[in-house]
């Protein structure tokens, strides 16, 4: 027989947890969005901004990163751990920053798009971080990059065919649209539920909880 007293305790506890989560989210928004600080660690596009977003993924945290970003390389394992522990129905998506200039942070956007279309980007991400950051690999230098492809077991002809595909062109346009819409000029940046752009402001485990809390705040009752 169900104990009504236990049910009441459970409901009270659930409401308490929801209340604390909402309070933490509100305090985070007030601290980083409304405080008027020089650097906004959390930018809120609002409901209308989320509705007009070019982002294609629902219920997602999107990491906008760059192979040339040392901080992205450092936090890569943490982001993958976040991906593995996302709540049911929610996910982590990766996009390379692309401001259209082809310079510095955006310089390897085409490489990301091509490898992603080929379905092998994730398995080569660590090697690309190392090559671009530590070995100063110029991914725009055809001869130099072809040598990197061969060294890493990627068929050069297959890669170049994929690079010239309509899918890669669409991916580059998409990343450029997302980068511009959210005015991202530094990495890593995290787009949460199409509405917020967050930059890490604390230890990554705590930061992850904040992002998941924001994403969960969009859930309908």
UniProtKB/TrEMBL annotation:
Pfam families: DSBA. This is Thiol:disulfide interchange protein. Keywords: Membrane, Transmembrane, Transmembrane helix. GO terms for molecular function: oxidoreductase activity. The chain crosses the membrane at residues 7-29. InterPro entries: DSBA-like_thioredoxin_dom, Thiol_disulfide_DsbA, Thioredoxin-like_sf. Residues 108-195 form the DSBA-like thioredoxin domain.
